[in-house]
Amino acid sequence: MSVPRSVANHRQAVVELLAGVAAAKGTCRVPLLEALGKPLAVDLFAPLSLPPFDNSQMDGFAVRSQDIPGQGAELRVAAPVPAGAAPAALEPGFAAPIMTGAMIPDGADAVVPVEKASPASFPEPSDTDAVVELPAVSPGTYVRNSGSDIEHGALALAAGTLLGPAQLGLLAALGLATVEVPEPLRVLLVTTGDEVVEPGEALTAGKIFDSNGTLLEASMRQAGLEVVRSGISDDHPSSLLSVLQHHTGEAETAVDIIVTTGGVSKGAYEVVRQAMVGQPVDFVPVAMQPGGPQGLGTFNGVPFLGFPGNPVSCLVSFEMFLRPALSEVMGTPAPRTVQAARLAAPLTSPDGKHQVRRGSVAGDGTVHMEGGAGSHLVHALARANALIQIPAAVTELNAGAEVEVWML
Length: 408
Known about the structure:
Layout: H1 7-24, E1 27-31, E2 44-45, E3 55-56, E4 60-63, E5 73-77, E6 94-98, E7 110-113, E8 131-134, E9 143-144, E10 155-157, H2 165-173, E11 178-182, E12 186-192, E13 196-197, E14 208-209, H3 212-222, E15 226-233, H4 237-246, E16 257-261, H5 271-275, E17 281-285, E18 288-289, E19 293-299, E20 302-307, H6 311-330, E21 338-343, E22 347-348, E23 354-361, E24 366-369, H7 378-383, E25 386-390, E26 396-397, E27 402-407
Parallel strand pairs: 5-6, 12-15, 12-16, 13-14, 16-20, 18-23, 21-24
Antiparallel strand pairs: 1-11, 2-10, 3-9, 4-6, 4-7, 5-8, 17-19, 19-20, 21-27, 22-26, 23-24, 23-25, 25-27
Helix pairs in contact: 1-6, 3-6
């Protein structure tokens, strides 16, 4: 009987399996919003300065600071400077009404806020004889200097940076409409079982609807994978082999990873085990509950992961092994947020197995378990917002005990 593999060791094996595939992928250029959540493929240098020109931080009057002595001065009012305009140079003895973000006129070196002027308002543009009394101001006051955010040619974002809203906003501010990201990995997702039918079909005696396909495809898409579905494969090894060979042969249909659900335990009719005879695939027990039975190897040279068939086992397998491996080798998705929480109720856990329970973390930092330890409890899974991690050496925890949770 094989010794169960630790969660950490199996996760590292998945990382090593995927490392070569990730290294072989190229890059592609996509519109900014399509890059959301993806890592930047190359160092990106600013094609222009931000701000691109000196501009006003306030609604006020652009002035030459030397025109205003310590006691203040009365200046003639020049033509106003709206945002988006290229203003004329400011002549000595004049103050130009200027809007926030508008370009500082040549010759001006400071802005006096309009509320500090007398009168504290802008004159009508038609009033060509208007004057304004302004207090003294230091050079640079309320002026956003060109390049004060980032200078032309400076490193804007380093390769590997995850592109969130703030990063994409920076690229847009730099005038970029597209960005270079790694090509996504294509994964073939195959659910197996004679008892499984597609949602929407008639449910006859002994049959169940396939939730694994939707559950895993949604998780994979959220993680940045391109998912290929083949439909449900029955319990005949020849049927599964036909699907796998189709997607590991011709370049047009080839995938980078294969993931199956079901058929990996030690029963008499484990279709995935039967189909993998002769392939370098190991079926190993992992010291984890749920999700203990796992398949790992290659099929026709393509990395293969065999997950158990129960829905919760599928999701836990993805979250504990495939998702973290993708984060490490591809730079995306971002790792799950890990935090501490206090148990709202006591729990027990099997000795020698890392247990992953589903829970809901409340605003006060307590976590309530959703459902029991069973791997079929889809309703409880849908109520959960976290995975509670119980180490293999822990068998009992009291209410109030601190646990590690991974936020979903």
